[in-house]
Write a structure and sequence with these properties.
Layout lengths: L1 H7 L21 H25 L2 E8 L5 H9 L7 E4 L6 H4 L16 E6 L8 H4 L5 H20 L2 E9 L2 H13 L9 H7 L2 H15 L6 E5 L3 H14 L37
Length: 282
């Protein structure tokens, strides 16, 4: 009845597939956000040490529309840990050789070995999203991908890899605000490509592609975890807290560390050398 009334008034029905939880009315203040993030960073370091100690293998996939906040979430996760343990993978467009391979083949070498945590900033799900919407592959290729992917992911999980898949869901209004911000902010202009502009106009094509992807690949052994990313700060904190809760890490005992005494000067003299110090402008 409500739908009939909405149509009668000429109103657009709201999208129903993946509802976005209402954003918090009061955004986190910078100091509060920094304090909570610092606590989570301590836990991420503990996770890192545990992974190195136990040889755990962890793979985290981030997907979502342009402007959903994937890059910021990944940066929040990795800014206080070792890049040799937390490896971020953001593959460029495939080469001609890679195009001739089995689709997931170029992603497989980047899966984690023992003691590694690999984060995919977009992943093999490009085929179900941007490639499908922008016409870079056929519908037959998409259907094949959606059939095969659960089998591949089952193999990944059965190999001992902890696989976490996050979908960052952003509203139309918030995406528009963020993409407009990239146009006028000199720090962010590199984030806005011609492809982003084309994909922006195809909101509902992406919605349909997302819905099909969820139906085919949201499995018990590798479920999609949806994040309300309208509030970036809360989204980052929620993602880190969630991934920590899904990994059975424990604090690794470490020997007490004390700085050793410095050696004696032993006749060393500071050189009279014209070091080329940079200008102190700040």
């Amino acid at each position: 009845m409500a739908k009939a009334k909405a149509k009668a008034k000429g109103k657009k029905e709201p999208e129903q597939a993946v509802p976005v939880a209402p954003a918090e009315s009061v955004r986190l203040k910078g100091k509060e956000y920094a304090g909570e993030l610092a606590k989570l960073h301590v836990q991420l370091v503990k996770l890192q040490l545990w992974a190195q100690e136990t040889g755990a293998k962890i793979c985290i996939v981030f997907e979502g529309r342009d402007g959903a906040g994937k890059g910021g979430a990944i940066k929040a996760i990795t800014e206080r840990v070792s890049p040799r343990v937390f490896r971020v993978i953001a593959l460029p467009a495939p080469t001609e050789r890679e195009k001739s391979q089995m689709y997931v083949q170029r992603y497989l070498p980047h899966l984690p070995a023992a003691g590694e945590i690999v984060i995919f900033d977009r992943s093999w799900y490009n085929r179900a999203g941007v490639e499908r919407v922008m016409g870079f592959c056929s519908e037959e290729q998409v259907e094949s991908f959606l059939r095969v992917t659960p089998l591949v992911e089952r193999g990944i999980v059965q190999s001992g890899i902890i696989l976490l898949k996050y979908w960052l869901e952003v509203s139309e209004e918030e995406q528009t605000r963020r993409l407009k911000g990239r146009i006028h902010d000199g720090r962010k202009v590199w984030k806005l490509s011609p492809m982003d502009l084309k994909s922006y106009s195809r909101w509902y094509d992406y919605s349909r592609a997302r819905d099909d992807m969820f139906k085919a690949t949201d499995t018990q052994f590798a479920p999609w975890l949806v994040v309300n990313s309208n509030d970036k700060r809360r989204a980052r904190l929620n993602i880190i807290a969630d991934l920590l809760s899904r990994i059975p890490y424990e604090e690794v005992e470490r020997p007490k560390v004390e700085l050793p005494k410095r050696q004696k000067r032993g006749g060393y003299r500071d050189p009279d050398y014209p070091f080329r110090y940079i200008p102190q402008k700040y």
